């Protein structure tokens, strides 16, 4: 990469290994700034552990977005129980250590409400029905999970295979969840780097975002 002052850790949100990796990096490398794959709403929910849905949220975001958020949260929580790690633990430890060590934090992700609203308005009905059908009837995901040690960060090969399949089956959802957010996070990181060239920056994000964000930064496609 062209940024010598940037380190990126690709994590699994339910991995104890990711928690330890983040903790070790912060305590041994002493970054000056930490950028995290969160927005203000998700960070607040992670810290407060309160995720109540209000009527005004449904009106702003849309039913589809709310349902998708609930389903994603349920699946992540269920997988987290299997490996005895609460979802987002690596982000939480980063926030706590940053506060303890007085390290500034950048919440580099797009507001979750905007993302979910885009899903509600932009995802075609056919794609929504396919997603729902796959969720209810498909056994493929379960078979794939049996091949993966979900307590660890997936390998690049597994991430690439899963990403290709996800993009093929749900192109609009992929664009909203992955492509657009990668571009936003890369832009926010780039601005942070430009304004802090003499600072050591640590970026923490899901492993599925890491490769593409590195590519965007390297190529300067911002």
List keywords for this structure.
alpha/beta; globular; 4 strands; 222 residues; 11 helices; four-stranded parallel beta sheet; 9% strand
Structure notes:
This protein has a four-stranded parallel β-sheet with strand order 1-4-2-3, with helices on both faces. By secondary structure, the protein is of the alpha/beta class. The chain has one domain. The mean pLDDT is 86.
Q: Name the average pLDDT.
A: 86
**Subunit arrangement of the protein:** single chain
- In the sheet with the most strands, the strands line up as 1-4-2-3
Assign the structural class, choosing from mainly alpha, mainly beta, alpha/beta, alpha+beta, or little secondary structure.
alpha/beta
Rounded to an integer in angstroms, the radius of gyration calculated over CA atoms is 17 Å
Which outline best applies? globular
Percent of residues in beta strands: 5-15%
**What is the succession of H and E elements?**
EHEHHHHEHHHHHEH
Helix content: 55-70%
Q: How many distinct domains?
A: 1
Outline the biggest β-sheet: 4 strands, parallel
Poorly predicted ranges (pLDDT <50, ≥5 residues)? none
| Strands, count | 4
Present the secondary structure layout.
Layout: E1 6-11, H1 16-29, E2 33-36, H2 40-48, H3 55-61, H4 63-82, H5 89-100, E3 105-107, H6 112-122, H7 125-137, H8 140-146, H9 156-169, H10 171-195, E4 201-206, H11 207-219
Parallel strand pairs: 1-4, 2-3, 2-4
């Amino acid at each position: 990469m062209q940024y010598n002052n940037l380190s990126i850790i690709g994590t699994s949100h339910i991995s104890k290994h990711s928690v330890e990796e983040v903790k070790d990096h912060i305590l041994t490398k002493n970054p000056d700034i930490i950028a995290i794959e969160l927005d203000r709403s998700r960070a607040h929910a992670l810290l407060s552990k309160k995720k109540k849905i209000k009527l005004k949220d449904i009106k702003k975001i849309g039913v589809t977005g709310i349902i998708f958020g609930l389903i994603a949260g349920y699946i992540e929580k269920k997988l987290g129980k299997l490996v005895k790690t609460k979802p987002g633990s690596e982000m939480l430890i980063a926030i706590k250590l940053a506060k303890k060590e007085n390290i500034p934090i950048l919440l580099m992700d797009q507001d979750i409400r905007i993302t979910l609203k885009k899903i509600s308005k932009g995802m075609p009905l056919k794609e929504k029905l396919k997603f729902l059908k796959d969720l209810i009837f498909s056994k493929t995901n379960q078979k794939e999970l049996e091949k993966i040690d979900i307590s660890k960060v997936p390998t690049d090969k597994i991430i690439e295979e899963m990403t290709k399949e996800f993009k093929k089956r749900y192109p609009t959802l992929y664009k909203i969840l992955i492509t657009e957010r990668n571009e936003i996070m890369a832009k926010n990181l780039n601005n942070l780097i430009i304004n802090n060239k003499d600072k050591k920056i640590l970026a923490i994000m899901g492993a599925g975002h890491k490769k593409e964000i590195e590519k965007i930064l390297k190529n300067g496609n911002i």
